[in-house]
């Protein structure tokens, strides 16, 4: 039996571009602090991953610095094929693990946004609550999203603009429907994205530009404004599909 979300998407009314942006600005005033906290937590997870990714390169950089002028260091000659393959596999695993945590944190932010929008008190903590019981699903979702993006890139980049829209909807659909399978989340994202592609694409571009405004504040402000990109996607979901009392996986859980 098909999940009700697909019928709701079929019956969804066309989102109002201007109304969504207006509501996003108003809601941002309520959630910018929590949004900033979520962004900083995601950054705190990404930094160790980047450090671990560069650790294997340290011997390479030291050896290169010790070489005399005119000599060139070629890692594909200096290191064996298994070592190079192993490094890239490790790099991909680290990136995907960081992406899983970022997906889980973003999903929690959508629940925080929903509570702020509906006037419910926002909980403190619980930033990793969506990772409980959903880690493997989020990992597969991350792999699928990467696969779709890479395939679109290989097809002369133009398809990447098309898949950009459904890929932006993956986490908001997961956040409010964690019971869906990975294939159902992807199917729902593409179904909703296809139906209102131009409007959602415009919202992605405008909200992305607005999120970059923080750069003007000595770059630090980007951490404050970065979370704005989630608000239009939240209202696209709310206006098109709506809610039926979807609680957090564990309302009282905090990590």
Automatic annotation (TrEMBL):
Q: Which UniProt keywords apply?
A: Membrane, Transmembrane, Transmembrane helix
Determine if Transmembrane helix is one of this entry's keywords.
yes
| Keyword match Membrane | yes
Instruction: Indicate the transmembrane segments per the record.
Output: 39-62, 82-105, 126-151, 157-176, 196-229
Q: What is this protein called?
A: DUF975 family protein
